[in-house]
Design a protein that fits this description.
single chain; about 35% helix; globular; alpha+beta; six-stranded mixed beta sheet; 4 domains; about 575 residues; three-stranded antiparallel beta sheet; Nucleotidyltransferase, domain 5
Length: about 575
């Protein structure tokens, strides 16, 4: 095999993340996808240099398909359709809904949402996120790469005044060999200087020397200025990701401070290269409550929540606690606090101060925070910074943000990382195209009139008897006169929720190949219908019970009596004994 010799440097790009924004000027229909990428330059000598870049794609085109008139004969949506039965069109994301309605021959109303246009069973391929379209077309298809050359990760943390009404008093950020803090001047001691704080923290924290960190600290008159300085610095450093442990707390405070001061967050977070008409900021809170199909609900812990910040910037906000839990759903932790996880994994947690004033106080408790903020201001700044550094060290150990997240995303976006159905659909989109088909779309009215006729998704949790099983109960009394108990060591649970969609995948079930679906069984009520279905999945364990309920067959007692009568065999009654020769 001969090696290709380059005559001049070759430039390629690696996609990391992106954000879609629209031109907000009146009458404009322009839009852009802003992409954070790695620019890789391969030199003639074989060396590769990597440079982070923030670039945009103007009015990127996306595909959609409409069923040809001759095939528009089905009332309900199909999962996929063959390409030769469809007409292919392209459009911008901003004009997509209008174009779909136009191609369907339907009227378009200004402000109409995509899910409304997707109600038609003849629209295909328009569900995938525009950011994923750009990711696939402009990067993955053009520049073939298996894994990213590197992900950079910074961490931020805020501290809030617990003794008065100063609000946010410290805002910290660490990023590899750099760290930055903004501190409210009204909170620090009279005569204190940033230089004194830098000197103290650099000497107090061994991590500063170990990681060769250059620390900068600014005192600010108000935290609006502090937040603006922080994100000016973040846009200069250009990390790929910025982590907030429990992002909902920090981002809510930051957003409220800016809005209360009349400052547009879009101007603070957006990269300076983004023109004013394309600047954008939206903090989308994920669900705080998990609702089940049966109507019940439970609050989600902070580590189970998934929040998203949309803004055209070279950094993407992530909650490492939520990511850590999402990647390890099968193994729950007793606590997802930063101190607990870093102590467990790194052997070191939060910054601790030994002083008589703090004796008996739990580090991190409200009383501890109040005392630290009042009497140990330099130490408290060190505490705020070490929380950032610990999260960096935590990810260096787990690889969650820098390795696992980009690897497991596939064609999907980070906002959908916690949604397996969305990730499956994104992967299925490209798979279908390779197979000569296109996946359908999801609307806000996916239920059809037939859905109300089939067995519902509720009331499936019921206890079924396990008849005629081998007696495997524990023998609790060491005497042959006593039967085994009903207690067992090994028990199994048939979880239908977890079985979906695996059963559908294994059986290849879809609307295209389903001839009919049983909605009712004559003589069987809906509860008994569910009961029988659960029993059927249990195999031969409950075969007799199932046959009695479903086919009205005799039970063992009746069968025994009939068999004995047919063969002139006496049937023993309770208390009687028959002897057979």
């Amino acid at each position: 095999m001969s090696n290709t010799i380059l005559e001049k440097p070759k430039v390629t790009f690696e996609y990391i993340h992106s954000c879609y924004t629209e031109d907000n000027r009146e009458g404009s229909m322009n839009d852009r996808v802003w992409v954070k990428a790695n620019e890789l330059t391969t030199h003639p000598d074989g060396t590769v240099t990597v440079k982070p870049v923030f670039r945009f794609h103007q009015n990127p085109q996306r595909d959609f398909w409409i069923t040809k008139k001759v095939f528009q004969k089905h009332e309900f949506k199909l999962e996929t359709e063959y390409l030769d039965r469809l007409n292919h069109y392209t459009t911008t994301q901003r004009d997509m809904v209008r174009q779909i309605q136009y191609k369907l021959g339907k009227p378009y109303k200004h402000g109409m949402r995509a899910v409304e246009a997707f109600r038609s069973p003849y629209v295909y391929g328009a569900d995938i996120d525009i950011n994923s379209v750009v990711k696939i077309k402009e990067y993955k298809d053009k520049y073939k790469y298996e894994t990213l050359s590197g992900i950079t990760y910074a961490v931020q943390d805020i501290e809030f005044d617990m003794n008065g009404k100063l609000g946010m008093i410290i805002f910290s950020m660490s990023f590899k060999d750099k760290a930055y803090q903004v501190v409210l001047r009204d909170w620090v001691g009279e005569g204190d200087t940033p230089e004194e704080y830098v000197k103290f923290i650099s000497e107090e924290l061994p991590e500063i020397k170990e990681r060769n960190i250059k620390l900068e600290i600014d005192f600010v008159t108000n935290m609006v200025d502090g937040i603006q300085r922080m994100y000016k610095k973040a846009n200069e450093w250009m990390p790929d990701f910025i982590g907030f442990w429990n992002i909902n707390y920090d981002m809510t405070i930051i957003e409220n401070i800016l809005k209360d001061a009349g400052v547009n967050p879009a101007d603070v977070f957006s990269h300076p290269s983004v023109p004013p008409e394309y600047r954008f900021f939206h903090y989308k809170r994920g669900p705080l409550v998990k609702r089940k199909d049966d109507g019940s609900s439970r609050p989600l812990a902070t580590s189970e929540q998934w929040h998203t910040v949309f803004t055209p910037a070279p950094y993407y906000f992530i909650d490492p606690a939520s990511l850590y839990r999402s990647l390890r759903k099968m193994k729950a932790e007793p606590s997802y606090s930063l101190d607990n996880l870093t102590t467990k994994l790194l052997g070191k947690g939060k910054y601790h101060v030994d002083h008589p004033l703090l004796k008996g106080m739990l580090t991190g408790s409200a009383r501890w925070h109040m005392t630290m903020q009042k009497h140990f201001k330099k130490e408290y700044c060190a505490y705020g910074l070490i929380d950032c550094i610990r999260v960096e060290q935590f990810d260096e150990e787990t690889g969650d943000v820098q390795t696992k997240l980009p690897l497991l995303l596939g064609n999907s976006q980070i906002k959908d990382f916690n949604s397996n159905p969305r990730k499956l659909c994104d992967a299925f989109h490209t798979f279908c195209l390779d197979e000569g088909q296109v996946i359908s779309t999801t609307s806000d009215q996916m239920k059809t009139k037939l859905d109300s006729l089939v067995v519902g998704k509720d009331l499936w949790i019921n206890i079924v008897e396990a008849t005629h099983l081998e007696d495997v109960g524990l023998k609790l009394v060491d005497d042959d006169m006593f039967m085994n108990s009903r207690l067992t060591l090994h028990n199994f649970d048939l979880d239908l929720i977890s079985a979906y969609p695996m059963i559908g995948i294994l059986l290849g079930l879809c609307r295209r190949n389903t001839v009919f679906e049983i909605c009712k069984i004559q003589g069987i009520d809906s509860f008994k219908h569910r009961y029988i279905c659960v029993n059927l999945t249990g195999g031969d364990a409950n075969a007799i019970t199932t046959c009695q309920d479903l086919f009205k067959l005799d039970g063992l007692d009746t069968l025994h009596t009939k068999f004995a009568a047919a063969h002139n065999i006496p049937v023993a009654k309770f208390g009687e004994t028959h002897h057979f020769s």
